Every structure is written in structure tokens, then in C-alpha cells.
Amino acid sequence: MMQPTGLALQRQAAGEAVAHLADEAATLALGQRLGRALRPGLKVYLQGDLGAGKTTLVRGALRALGYRGPVKSPTFTLVEVYCVSSLYLYHFDFYRFENPQEWRDAGFREEFGGPGVCLVEWPEKAAGLLPVPDLTITLEHAGQGRRARLTSTSEQGRQCLDQIAQ
Ligand code: ADP
Ligand code: MG
Questions:
Q1: Does a structural domain hold residue 6?
Q2: Domain boundaries, position 38
Q3: Cα separations in angstroms, 63 against 7, 8, 16, 33, 162
Q4: How many domains are there within the chain?
Q5: Is the full-model pTM beyond 0.85?
């Protein structure tokens, strides 16, 4: 497989890395690295404006796990569930929440405490109620491309980050 040239990943301080993502292929490539580093129960929160590349990152992760179907944005459904490569993977998008209480009402607490992997777009919409993540990936526009900052906040998150940055 050709190595994408657009992905430049740099280790920062312990528990941090930054990546410049020159194009969509680079975001997919980072997503693929994330996909290979996912373990049961891992919670990864994806921050960034509309169009920052959060769903693209999830698409890359699912591709790396062997999923070949469409990866739809869960903006209206709140969650899309995948069972791939012996992992349950929940792709959440809380964009439409008007207040964090809606997260509790939606009844997702169980998913966040179980063996399924949680990849969450717009976690800030459920701020104060969501459990702390293992890994946070913040995406922002940078010229024509994007910049990603990865921050781990648990031992499992750090292991995941180590594998991504290898
Ligand atoms: P989000 O889920 O954050 O709203 P999407 O993943 O839907 O964003 O991506 C929005 C658009 O940005 C898509 O057209 C996608 O192809 C494009 N995109 C993703 N990553 C990059 C990148 N690194 N450089 C340029 N465009 C990108
Ligand atoms: Mg999205």
C-alpha cells in the first residue's frame, strides 16, 4: 500500500502528538492508524467545527478494521453501531443536543461503560455528563488541510497514542 505523503505526525510532550493532514487521504490515514490501535472500552472524543474531518477520521478507522460499507454521519440518528473485527464500535454525534441533559435522556450511559469502543463527535454538547475520555483528537482547519492534536488522558489512551505515533 502506498504511504500517504500528506500525513506528518509528531510526538510532543508525554501523552501528546500533533499531525498535519494535507488532504482527505491524510485524515483517512490517521483514522486507519487509530482504527488499528483501538481496544475494547476505549473512549475517543473528536473535537472540531463542522467540516473539520471528524467523520472522515471515523471512516478511516472503520476501513482499517475491515468495514467496507458506507460510514454515515450520525448527526440525525445520534449513533451508528458497527460490529467489526470482534469489536463493537459506537459512532456518536451529539451535535443536535441543545443541552447535556439530552445525553442522559437518550440512555447512552450503558454504552459508555461497556466493552464497546466509543468514538464521539461533539462531546462538548454533553459536557459534564460524559465520562472522561481516554483520548481526545482535536481537528482544525490549517490552510487547505487540517491540523490534528491528540491528547491522552488515561493509561489506555496513552497506549493507543503510542501505537498511533509509532
Ligand atoms: P466533520 O465530521 O468534522 O463535520 P467531515 O469528516 O464530514 O467533517 O469532513 C468534511 C470535509 O472535509 C469532507 O469533504 C472531507 O473530505 C474534508 N476533509 C477531511 N480531511 C481533510 C483534510 N485533511 N484536508 C482537506 N479536506 C479534508
Ligand atoms: Mg461529522
A1: no
A2: 12-165
A3: 17, 20, 24, 10, 20
A4: 1
A5: yes
User: 10-residue block means of pLDDT along the chain (166 residues)?
Assistant: 70 93 96 97 98 98 96 94 95 96 93 96 96 98 97 98 94
52 within ligand 1 shell (Cβ under 6 A): yes
The answer as to whether 63 is a domain residue is yes
Q: Grid coordinates standing for 68?
A: 467496507
Within the chain, strands assigned E span: 7-11, 16-21, 43-47, 79-84, 87-93, 117-121, 135-142, 145-152
Question: In whole angstroms, how large is the CA radius of gyration of the chain?
Answer: 15
Q: Which amino acid is at 84?
A: V
Taking the centre of ligand 2 as the mean of its atom positions, its distance from the CA of residue 54, in whole angstroms, is 5
CATH of the domain at 36: 3.40.50.300
Residue 157 gets which letter from DSSP? H
Nearest alpha carbon, ligand 1 atom 5: 53
Walk across the sheet containing 7-11 and list its strands: 7-11, 16-21, 145-152, 135-142, 43-47, 117-121, 87-93, 79-84
